[in-house]
Write a structure and sequence with these properties.
mainly alpha
């Protein structure tokens, strides 16, 4: 009996809808939107082994190994799902079983079959511990049977994972874009290849093509965010990850990265808000407390400093030792210092130094010095001076600013001998920095407050006569020099020289109290 036309049309439409849904589910999987993929594929998986396979892959991508095992087992004799079971074995650190199951899939393939070869190769290619060269060999065998863009994409991925395989990876991706000019995924992968080769212009060009090919593909935004993140362009990283989050499934890892970028782009309130949001949602990872603590460390109010101490302690208690880096100890020391725990601060700063394997530690020393400087206490300034002294002593390439801070903080805490040594070294090493001479004058005049010895005269007069392009003498600095020199020449009885400097003071500040006192003294004299 023939089927009624209406019923046949309904069945055809049902198959068409299922096919479209499967295609969309696979697309979501490829775009790493695994939760969305699961929602699309779950109703199809009961009757469709292919949908079931991608449903299992989505569970595996979300690190739900047991769920993936159960899913793939529903079609244990199907080549795709058997390859899925091989992936589960690899994920469970059983590489031998993974390899065995993948080989079984290959051995079951009939003469003209290419899909089992692809599934088995995928199991090796996309699993930790899988043999990538074997995967490449199986992809090539499959390509002998059919010229398929999916095979070229996967073969390109496999080549990227072996030494010197970048060229072949590019060839395979470009074969896809030649055949399918709107294949967003292929352009994303080409962009990633160029980025790895440090050709940033071509990387950006291909990420742009990926976005244009499919504006709903979140991957190029994520890759751009990561690219900008690793090159220190945190504002651009923030822009792109925010676009990525609009398009992605907003996984926990995505949101952690977002919090990281918020922190590094110095949006500390935003980072604090994001981490608290994740913690309050019931998700708990050590990194949350690290970002939370280090963001609170950079917020001005004292409540945040106290909370930072609580959270950094949680971070160190939860985090694995091998994942704690020198910067973590430096931050812990800074937070301890902010909470007036100086001994603890010293302990963690020294832990950071002991752990840092860099030949040059000047950047680490600078961070520690800044932490002490930011306490805005005499004790803190003294410590800051000591750490800048370490930079100068250990680094022949120390910059003028390092010498300046070494001298300045020692000057502030009245360690004048050290301060003069620092500014003297700066003057010798950086003759194009007149401020070194000026500060030698400040150090000398601090030890000759009555300006009777005249020890600062040489430095101040040398500084006043200096003329370095781009260097501007500030009025506040000029006043220090003019006042000392005016008083010195008054004490010496040289009224001509004294009046010369008094007139300079009057030119800057006619109502200056020192000027008035000196004029009164001069009249009496």
């Amino acid at each position: 009996m023939k089927q009624p036309i209406v019923m046949m049309a309904a069945i055809a439409m049902s198959f068409q809808v299922q096919a479209q849904s499967l295609e969309e589910g696979v697309k979501m999987y490829n775009y790493e939107r695994f939760e969305t993929a699961k929602k699309i594929l779950t109703p199809l998986a009961a009757t469709n082994p292919q949908a079931n396979y991608y449903l299992g892959l989505s569970a595996l991508a979300l690190e739900n190994n047991n769920e993936a095992q159960t899913t793939f087992s529903k079609y244990a004799d199907d080549a795709a799902n058997m390859a899925g079971l091989a992936r589960v074995a690899f994920a469970n650190n059983n590489a031998a079983e993974g390899q065995r199951l993948a080989q079984v899939v290959v051995d079951k393939a009939k003469k003209k079959d290419w899909e089992p070869l692809m599934y088995a190769a995928d199991a090796l290619n996309y699993s930790e511990g899988g043999n990538k060269q074997t995967a490449i060999d199986w992809y090539k065998k499959a390509l002998e049977k059919t010229d398929n863009t999916e095979l070229h994409l996967s073969l390109g991925d496999a080549y990227r994972k072996i030494q010197g395989g970048g060229g072949e990876a590019m060839n395979n991706y470009e074969k896809v874009t030649t055949k399918e000019p709107n294949n967003s995924l292929a352009f994303s992968k080409i962009g990633a290849l160029w980025y790895a080769a440090k050709n940033y212009n071509l990387a950006l060009e291909n990420y742009k093509k990926a976005k244009e090919a499919d504006p709903n593909n979140p991957i190029p935004y994520r890759d751009l965010a990561n690219a900008y993140f690793w090159t220190g362009k945190y504002d651009l990283a923030k822009q792109n990850i925010e676009q990525y989050l609009q398009l992605s499934d907003k996984s926990t890892e995505d949101q952690i990265q977002y919090g990281n970028i918020l922190y590094l782009s110095k949006d500390y309130p935003g980072a604090i808000s994001k981490m608290n949001e994740l913690i309050n949602s019931g998700v708990s990872k050590p990194g949350f407390y690290g970002i939370l603590a280090y963001s609170q460390m950079n917020v001005a109010d004292s409540v945040s400093k106290a909370e930072a101490l609580t959270n950094v302690r949680k971070y160190f208690a939860m985090q694995k030792k091998e994942k704690i880096f020198p910067s973590d100890y430096t931050n812990y020391g800074t937070i301890a210092l902010q909470n007036n725990l100086t001994d603890s601060a010293d302990y963690y700063f020294n832990k950071a130094i002991a752990m840092d394997t860099s030949a040059k530690k000047d950047e680490l020393y600078r961070q520690i010095a800044d932490a002490f400087k930011n306490t805005k206490t005499t004790e803190g300034y003294a410590k800051a001076g000591e750490w800048y002294g370490k930079i100068v002593a250990e680094n022949p390439d120390a910059g003028a600013l390092d010498y300046y801070y070494y001298g300045f903080f020692n000057y502030y805490v009245k360690k004048y001998d050290i301060a003069d040594k620092a500014f003297g070294q700066m003057e010798e090493k950086y003759p194009d920095q007149p401020s070194a001479t000026y500060w030698r004058g400040r150090v000398a005049s601090a030890q000759d407050e009555d300006a009777k010895k005249g020890t600062a005269t040489t430095y101040y007069e040398k500084w006043l006569n200096s003329n370095v392009a781009g260097y501007e003498k500030k009025n506040a600095d000029l006043m220090y020099a003019y006042q000392y020199l005016a008083l010195y020449y008054y004490n010496k009885g040289d009224k001509t020289a004294m009046n010369n400097y008094l007139s300079k003071i009057e030119g800057i500040e006619p109502s200056n109290s020192f000027l008035k006192q000196m004029k009164d003294l001069s009249k009496k004299g």
